[in-house]
Amino acid sequence: MINQFKRLCTTNNLIYFFGIITILLALMPEASAHGVTEGDKGYIQESSGTMILPFIYLGAKHMVTGYDHLLFLFGVIFFLYRLKDVSIYVTLFAVGHSVTLISGVLMEISVSAYLIDAIIGFSIVYKALDNMDAFKSWFGFQPSTKIATLIFGLFHGFGLATKILDYKMSSDGLLANLISFNIGVELGQIMGLAMILIGISYWRRSGGFFRHAYNANVALMAGGFIFVGYQMTGYFLNN
């Protein structure tokens, strides 16, 4: 079935797709960077002292509503059937996300959130292409999906760390609040992943999974390119 799926990933189809995306990017409006609501922004800026439960809630809320994270995870588990494999990839992503979220804020490593988010969008494109066996078709080898998942997890965490630095969190209780926020992110990831797994499990039982797998990953790739376009538009309009 994978071979049937692979034959659909032709050069002509991809060229046609890239042409459509190019037109869409040319028409895009300005976009905002890594999503944190204005209300949450104000709360983060005004918070002082250790506030474990509120920051767990903020972390979970960010992850559940973070479509960039969820799209990437959707791509990661698209062809995974065993819970053991799902756990491995999700753990790698969580480790990468946790390391850069906490260390990025504590070490005050700041880069444009637009550029970081553009890389996050590219991670979605990469995973869609990986699911379509595009790298084997184009280059004759398969990059390590586990390493890629860890690396993109680092960028996902760094994207949020960059945004948190912009909000200038109080140093009072900073480490405890960051750890709490990260715990919330991982809890949100579990909730979001559970919803994805339930949906994709029903889809696989329908019998049309492999018939529509190519189109699903084209849509995933389109979402990634659109996300990249939004972030790069925001970057150039704000610099």
Walk me through the structure.
With 239 residues, the chain is mainly α. It contains 11 helices and no strands. The protein is globular. The model is unreliable at 4-34 (pLDDT under 50).
Question: Sheet bearing the most strands, described?
Answer: none
Arithmetic mean pLDDT: 77
The number of helical elements comes to: 11
The tally of domains stands at 1
Instruction: Write the H/E string, N to C.
Output: HHHHHHHHHHH
Poorly predicted ranges: 4-34
Q: In percent terms, what proportion of residues is strand?
A: under 5%
Structural class designation: mainly alpha
Q: Radius of gyration from the CA trace?
A: 19 Å
Shape, principal axes of CA atoms: globular
Amount of helix: over 70%
Q: In whole angstroms, how far apart are the ends?
A: 47 Å
**Total E-strand runs:** 0
What's the short version?
By secondary structure, the chain is mainly α.
Architecture blueprint of SSEs:
Layout: H1 2-8, H2 11-26, H3 38-46, H4 52-65, H5 67-76, H6 83-106, H7 113-131, H8 134-139, H9 145-166, H10 174-205, H11 209-237
Short key terms for the protein model shown above:
0% strand, mainly alpha, 79% helix, 239 residues, single chain
